[in-house]
């Protein structure tokens, strides 16, 4: 675990010193529950690594995630269908196109923008070797979410969320546990139509969240809300497919960049993207 | 909210207008707006769709509904769900996607599926078979005493009319 700490510090030094990080964390980018026992090493500016980490930041859509979906795809997957007017959450009103015969219609133009931002952010996190956790408490889609996470080499949590999972991880899972760097909610509600505890806990632990918010959800604590339908299987399959493609694309791009810049194949297999 | 109401009424008005347009030929039909349109938004949207139709008909003899240039407003207006109108007593075609003993889970293209009892003697209804339904409600919700929002059952309600015979295509087909 100490080797992991050390290597990951090296890896994210470029991230820390190059630009203001969207993820504010005191421990050099990774979310460690315990304070580091050793002092952070002196910044050994590895030029090649810095270049690899900084290059995606130069373009707004480096991974071209806007090509992965179109308005027609969203429409055919019934992403624009919301709940009835009586179920509407007050804070979702800016994201709604209107209400037709008591059924809310979500504005797909806004959804397109938000989904692009969310996918772009996910791609950047995956590029830098972050841990992504898929969360959904919908039993209907539990298996789908788990297979999606498995297919892109990330993690999923579709069961009962224990209270101290993020906030008390030190005690529940042992010291020095690495927490996820991004949590993706395929549905922000739990089975009794209350907001999922993970959203509040992630905000407490400074972990950014991407969440699909339906017209009865509260979008305020979600970092990258994506207004859209979370009840229809077609829509959830679309989201899973998009996230999987984005993450795989970002990881392949990272391997490509490493090969391009002449970094040797990872020898020490302890970290996700081992560096020299 | 007032703006939304205006757009909604404009939508309903445009439904009647659009049906007339669709039935007429697809040639450049830039006729004047028939009757009073309520709200600038409704008029603007209508003119935008007309302009697109003229452009596409000038470009080629192909229906523009499959082109990627359609805006969300145009897609929504032409969608079967909107064209259907109120869901009460609308006859739709659905597809069975799951069977649990006597319960059929049927998806008809709306937000939720509906669950119907298998009628006696209809053992031919397997996952994948198409059925005819009469919708009662697209989403079963109710506001109970003391609650601030509606409680939803995450299901639609429909009456099963029977299996869809091949060849009878007169009812609304949801995008399924």
TrEMBL record, chain A:
InterPro entries the record matches: Ribosomal_uS2, Ribosomal_uS2_bac/mit/plastid, Ribosomal_uS2_CS, Ribosomal_uS2_flav_dom_sf
Signal sequence, start to end: 1-20
Database matches in Gene3D superfamilies: Glucose-6-phosphate isomerase like protein, domain 1
Keywords, sorted A to Z: Mitochondrion, Ribonucleoprotein, Ribosomal protein, Signal
One cellular component term from this protein's GO annotations in UniProt: mitochondrial inner membrane
Record PANTHER family: 30S RIBOSOMAL PROTEIN S2 PROKARYOTIC AND ORGANELLAR, SMALL RIBOSOMAL SUBUNIT PROTEIN US2M
Role, per record: Required for mitoribosome formation and stability, and mitochondrial translation.
Protein's name in the database: Small ribosomal subunit protein uS2m
The species this protein was found in: Oreochromis niloticus
Gene name for this UniProt entry: MRPS2
TrEMBL record, chain B:
InterPro entries named among the record's database cross-references: Ribosomal_bS1m
One cellular-component annotation, GO: mitochondrial small ribosomal subunit
Any one Pfam family match given in the protein's UniProt record, by short name: MRP-S35
Protein's recorded name: Uncharacterized protein
Source species of the chain: Oreochromis aureus (Israeli tilapia)
């Amino acid at each position: 675990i100490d080797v992991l700490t050390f290597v990951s510090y090296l890896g994210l030094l470029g991230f820390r010193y190059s630009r203001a990080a969207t993820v504010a964390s005191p421990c050099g980018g990774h979310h460690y529950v315990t304070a580091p026992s050793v002092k952070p090493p002196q910044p050994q500016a590895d030029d090649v690594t810095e270049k690899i980490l900084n290059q995606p930041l130069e373009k707004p859509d480096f991974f071209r995630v806007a090509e992965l979906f179109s308005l027609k795809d969203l429409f055919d997957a019934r992403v624009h269908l919301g709940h009835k007017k009586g179920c509407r959450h007050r804070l979702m009103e800016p994201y709604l196109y209107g209400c037709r015969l008591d059924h809310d219609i979500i504005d797909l133009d806004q959804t397109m923008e938000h989904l692009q931002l969310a996918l772009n952010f996910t791609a950047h996190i995956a590029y830098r070797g972050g841990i992504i956790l898929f969360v959904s408490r919908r039993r209907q889609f539990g298996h789908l979410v788990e297979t999606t996470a498995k297919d892109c080499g990330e993690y999923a949590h579709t069961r009962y969320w224990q209270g101290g999972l993020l906030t008390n991880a030190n005690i529940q899972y042992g010291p020095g546990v690495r927490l996820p760097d991004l949590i993706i909610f395929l549905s922000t509600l739990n089975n009794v139509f209350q907001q999922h505890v993970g959203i509040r806990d992630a905000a407490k632990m400074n972990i950014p969240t991407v969440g699909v918010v339906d017209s009865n959800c509260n979008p305020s604590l979600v970092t990258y809300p994506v207004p859209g339908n979370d009840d229809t299987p077609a829509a959830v399959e679309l989201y899973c497919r998009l996230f999987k493609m984005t993450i795989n694309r970002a990881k392949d791009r990272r391997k490509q960049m490493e090969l391009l810049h002449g970094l040797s194949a990872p020898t020490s297999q302890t970290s996700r993207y081992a560096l020299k | 909210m007032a703006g939304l109401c205006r757009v909604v009424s404009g939508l309903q008005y445009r439904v009647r207008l659009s049906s007339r347009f669709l039935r007429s030929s697809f040639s450049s039909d830039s006729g004047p707006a028939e009757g009073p349109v309520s709200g600038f938004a409704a008029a603007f949207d209508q003119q935008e769709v007309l302009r697109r139709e003229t452009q596409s008909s000038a470009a080629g003899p192909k229906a523009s509904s499959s082109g990627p240039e359609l805006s969300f407003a145009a897609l929504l207006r032409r969608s079967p769900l909107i064209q259907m109108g109120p869901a009460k007593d609308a006859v739709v075609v659905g597809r069975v996607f799951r069977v649990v003993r006597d319960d059929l889970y049927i998806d008809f293209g709306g937000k939720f599926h509906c669950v119907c009892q298998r009628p006696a003697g209809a053992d031919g209804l397997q996952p994948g078979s198409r059925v005819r339904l009469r919708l009662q409600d697209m989403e079963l919700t109710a506001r109970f005493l003391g609650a601030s929002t509606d409680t939803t059952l995450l299901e639609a309600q429909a009456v099963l009319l029977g299996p869809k015979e091949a060849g009878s295509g007169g009812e609304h087909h949801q995008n399924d």
